[in-house]
Amino acid sequence: MLNIATINVQNKYKLKRYNGILKNEDHIKMLFSLIEKYELDIIGLQEVNQRYFVRLLKYLPKNFCCYGKFRYPKSFFTRYIYPFSVFNESVPILTNKNILRKDTKTLPWICSYVPRIVTIVEVSIEDIGPVVILNTHLDYMKAETKKKQLKKLIKIIERIKRPVILMGDFNMTIHNRDFQLFIKEMEKLNINRVVINEATFKKATKNVAIDHVFFSKCFILKKILLEKDVEYGNFSDHYPVIVRLGFDFNY
Question: In this predicted structure, what is the pLDDT of residue 59?
Fold first, then answer.
């Protein structure tokens, strides 16, 4: 069994109130309580700024590793946009599995607000072998930019010869035509989308998800849930999406 999650943390490294105490690390503690509660093996995070990332590493359990570069190259960021560090986000992957390879690819973004990236980690999973995990956060403003980013994701995944798990905040619902075409292209690569019939963005007016998970057909979907416990009410403006996968050894 493999427990995975995609979680938009909304850069909330400091909460106004958590168990009656105000501390910078409270959000990180809530994150790791989620990981412990659902015995998560692989977690894709979105909206992780530099301050959050530092605290994340500080409290990372010893059996976990974390990989994720930032949107802006360090030299570019240091020289030109340091005052806007809140926008220099990472989309890291946390895992308790052995990492075999790691990479970060830039997605098309010129004409958009900020750069977008996809974090790629190849891990070794017991009983199944190497699996490639991808985590991303797509543009939220321009439809044409999102379309180009989806096409780039397809090109990246087409080159992967291992089973794939793709997750992230796509800022698109199942009603989006470009996203529907993306799903069909993924199905051609034997990769399915987890059907989520609930809103994953708390302010959504309809029960449709913008946070998504895809997985190769060597996996079997066992369970899916959105964490809506009141304990995590201030955690983010997104609901954490938790998915449990089994293995199809006959595939």
Answer: 87
**C-alpha 235, offset from chain centre:** 16
- In the three-class reduction of DSSP (H, G, I as helix; E, B as strand; rest coil), residue 144 is classed as helix
Residue ranges covered by each domain of the chain: 2-247
pLDDT at 133 over 80: yes
Does residue 24 have a pLDDT over 60? Answer: no
Q: Which residues contact 164 (CB under 8 A, 6 or more apart)?
A: 131, 132, 133, 134, 157, 189, 191, 214, 215, 216
- Three-state SS for 22-83 is CCCCHHHHHHHHHHHHCCCCEEEEECECHHHHHHHHHHCCCCCEEECCECCCHHHHHHHCHH
CA distance 10 to 156: 26
The superfamily CATH assigns to domain 2-247 is: Endonuclease/exonuclease/phosphatase (3.60.10.10)
So what's the pLDDT on residue 248?
83
Calpha distance 64→35 (Å, rounded): 11
Residue 110 burial (CB < 10 Å; 0-12/13-18/19+)? Answer: exposed
In the chain, the largest separation of any two C-alpha atoms, in whole Å, equals 53
Task: Tell how strand 211-216 and strand 164-169 pair up.
Answer: antiparallel
Query: Tokens in use for 133?
Result: 């995990």
Residue 130 burial (10 A CB sphere; 0-12, 13-18, 19+): middle
Q: How far apart are CA 119 and CA 150, in angstroms?
A: 14
